[in-house]
Amino acid sequence: MTEPAPRAPIGPLADGEWHRLHPASPLLRGGLVFLAVLGFVLANLRERVVEVFVLFFAPGEAGGGEAPGFGGDWAEDPVTGIVANGLVGWALLAFAVVIALVILGFWFAWRMHTFRVTDEALEVRSGILFRSHRSARLDRIQGINIARPVFARLFGAAKLDVSVAGQSGNVDLSYLGSAQADRLRGDLLRLASGARRQEPVATGDGDSVVAAGADAAGTAQLGPGAPSAADRAGAVVGRRVDEFLAPELDPDLAPPESVVRLPLPRAIAAALLGGSMIWLVVIIVIIVIALTTGTLWMLFTFIPAAIGVISYLWSRITGSLRYSIAGTRDGVRIGSGLLSTANQTIPPGRVHAIEASQWLLWRAFGWWTVRVNVAGQSITQAGDAARRTLVLPVGTADDVRRVIGLLAPDALDDLVPLLDAGLAGTGPAPGFTSAPRRAAWIRPFSWRRIGLAVQGGTAVLRSGWLLRRLALVPLARMQSVAVAAGPVRRGLRLESLRIHTVAGPIAPEVPALDRADATAAFGAIAAEAVERALRDRTDRWGAEHAS
Amino acid sequence: MPDPEHAASDAPEAPVPEAPAHVDDDWRRVSPKHVVVEVVGSVIGAGITVAVLLVVGWWFELPWATWGGIAVGAIALVSIAFEPRRVRSIGYRRRADDLVFRRGIMFQRQVAVPYGRMQLVDITRGPVSRALGLADLKFVTAAAATAVTLPGLPLDDAERLRDELVALAETRRAGL
């Protein structure tokens, strides 16, 4: 991270020209669903057609014949009508026209969906009738995600999602070739870092990237020598298999000692001991009661709820599979997933708050989970955002320290002495301003844990008993700070202190401090925030290499 | 040299009008006329509720509605009586690097917003404020929780303050 090692030149997709997406994109973006529906309808139509003919030729025997699936009923009337009126030819023609129109539509949408990367911004043009042109400023990039759903991986494609500051959502490029997506991410991050664009020199290693996108055409080409064609097909299959099995992190980019290991049993146990488990138990008890008493309406109400909770648990477990986190030159990279994989990069200087939290049932095992606040998480995609803000699904205190070291590398030396007391400690601790004993009136269980420290440009907020929390807020990115007191707190001469950051899962708050302490902390935080914000240059982390 | 934003913060050749005017360490209050705005608002709100409750109580002979109406009216009167105090508690202070805002007598709140964090400054005026020549100034940062609104400033003051703050925010902006 310190020495400016020479880097590969900007890749072919980031050359400022307009490019199209992966040729399989239309198929992956909706074509597969279309094909599945089509197949379903056709399969059922076939049943109906057979049945109609049976009915036609042998009316007596068809009474018991029942079409499998509920699609059969749906198709009954049209098919019978068409056969009865002799319109089979017209129906087939109409069908063919519809299919052709849909294919044409998908193809046009693909043709018109282009993107380019300039020195300033990533621009995307799309739409057939209603054209849209989105442009995301590179220096406002808050994170880049690469997702590879199972089907997309079979095609060697990946979805690149660039989140920018703002609520209107992200710029997403779905889909790109898998290798191209990785390359483009690197290029975007490099341009965003403030490093200058280098002239694209020899495109020697770029060729393999282009080939990855074009290999669909390559396999179709029948060479004169049969062995060479077979070799090429073998190479393509080999590359697919390699891509499919490859770990999410490029081993060159990930210093191995910094990667947190998340064993599968721990992931499963942590999910089962999580808060959602209580809901599952409650729901199962209700279902059992409903079954024994025979109140069926309760079953209909709660079985969907049980399915919801189980699918949440399942996604929680699968999301932790093959979890990895590592610091790269262009930010922290977090990858996870077994079949559908996701891979997120948070550039330096984009983390607005970090929180390690520990639920009561996790305490015996010493497990923690770490979340972050980052800008540009649109509120509409709640599930997606929840996954992206989860940095460490479950880990030990050591893992938490390593993750915080990656997320806040500059402040780590100052924070290390505070972390032990901050994570599990109670009572007064060096560095922390604790809440006075009278805070027990409003926080009877957690008042011993309540504490605040300001160290190394970071505010450290400790609180919670049922859910132990330790929040770290880099003051360079704090938005505002507030102290407040209602009648009860005023009577106890207490004040609560809140630090406002961009929207996210963390709302850093110290519930109660002595009034004098709170006022002093308010002043200190406000002053340090201004000073740190002026000095902070982490959001253009590559600029010093360029100039 | 790398980009103009940071260069600006290093060497402020800033077009700030009345250069040192923004630093003043006194708490400033909002215009006392803002009491009228608040009173009119609560009179209209409470008046409608009380009227509905009284009419319902009289028409359907429901004593609880009548008593409810009387209770709402009494609470509204007490809160209106405290309105001047509440408006006097609203204050702001322009420090060298941030704006501090405070309000409340029962529920006190004090917020410090660094100038560089202000994403936009908004002036809104309701019908009563307009009649009195007042305006509300709303500050928006990237955090929704900041929620700082400075009500009841004379329009000229509000516009001048807005321009100053925007200029300050421009010179001190640093990333997000």
TrEMBL record, chain A:
Chain ranges passing through the membrane: 27-45, 87-110, 267-290, 296-314
Species in which this protein is naturally found: Agromyces luteolus
Ranges of residues in domain YdbS-like PH: 110-185, 323-378, 447-519
Pfam families: bPH_2
The keyword Transmembrane helix is assigned to this record: yes
Descriptive protein name: PH domain-containing protein
UniProt xrefs under InterPro entries: UCP026631, YdbS-like_PH
UniProt KW keywords: Membrane, Transmembrane, Transmembrane helix
Automatic annotation (TrEMBL), chain B:
The keyword Transmembrane is annotated on this UniProt entry: yes
The YdbS-like PH domain, residue ranges: 88-165
Region (Disordered): 1-23
Keyword Ubl conjugation (UniProt): no
InterPro entries: YdbS-like_PH (IPR005182)
Membrane-traversing stretches: 35-58, 64-82
Keyword field: Membrane, Transmembrane, Transmembrane helix
Protein name, as recorded: PH domain-containing protein
Species in which this protein is naturally found: Agromyces luteolus
